[in-house]
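Reviewer 2 asked us to include a model.

Predict the structure of this chain.
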Amino acid sequence: MTKLWVVLAMVLFGLLAQAGTRDVKKTYELINKGEALSSRDADSLEERIAKKPEDAEARIQLLSYYSRIPARGALSAIKAARLKHILWLVAHDPEEGLGLFQIATGIYLVNRVGDDLADAEACRLVSDLWLEQMKKNAGNVKLRREAVEAILFCSPELAEQAMAEMKDEAGLGRLYAYAVLGVTGRSYANRDPLLSDAALRASPFAKKAQGILDEATDQQLLMAAVGTLLRTGAILWADGKLDWDYTSMGHSLLAKIQEEAVDPFVLLTLPRTLPARGDRPPAMLRIGGNVQSRQLVQKVSPVYPTGARDAGIEGTVRMTALIGLDGKVLHLRPESGHAKLVPASVDAVRQWMYKPTLLNGKPCYVLTQVDVNYVLSPR
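Predicted model (structure tokens):
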């Protein structure tokens, strides 16, 4: 598991460092240190926290430690210690979560069912505290979103209510797709779907969710639902944790999405057929432009448009680029720049080639930013 954190830290650091005020690289390092703790180390950190409750570094390490190997001690004691730190986090740092909310970790999450650390009563306590925080900070949208993410599987009805109040149609689409798939929770290591439970797929909430999706017309909700259904379903199927063919429902939802509402970046990377067992779908990483530019192996310079040159037009054309598994540019979306400079920029960047990006040895899609600069030569 340590290697996974190292890879994620190296690949995602350039983007994630902009997402919050804490040092993302340091957070990953603390998670890795937590994995390697001995029981004696953990006891020492608990003593440290008893003297200094705001010691975020100690709490991150302990959450990592308690979330990894339940066999290290009595399961009930580990669950209690873990819950204590999660409740402290929600009570004292609900916006940043000690810096954990901005990275791909689930060590601060509680699942209701589905794994050794799952705990229905802990779920209730955590959900109640998040509800209290949402009420105390009613105008804080960021906190509200973090709360919803934390209780998504503990209290789907409460999450649904909060999303509806925020008019978060995309969030509702994800929630309903998870319910239809019967997802029990997320991995504490990386927030991957934990498993699918047939009883949850047959629950009243899941039946309600399926009915809503069958009748849905909101394009944001549909896009989020189909993306979650097809990608999460593919992961569960590949892992041997799902025996229900979700793809027919996925295609039914796709048929309702209007062409102008389609996000091509999501659409081009969706796994639309059942994968082979053991063959997870490729991931899509968001990587900063400066970091991704180091992977360029072929760069074609744009031709300066004559009309723009004659008009004295200079500047930067900024584009979002989707890079395929083989390093080719699959899609470009201009974000800013003079209209006379955009077509030449798109034509040039379409020909660029990157070294394929690997995650755990497997090629993945990359969403990145590309800037093309135009500067007139002095006459």
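The mean pLDDT is 91. The longest strand covers residues 362-374. We have added this to the supplementary material.
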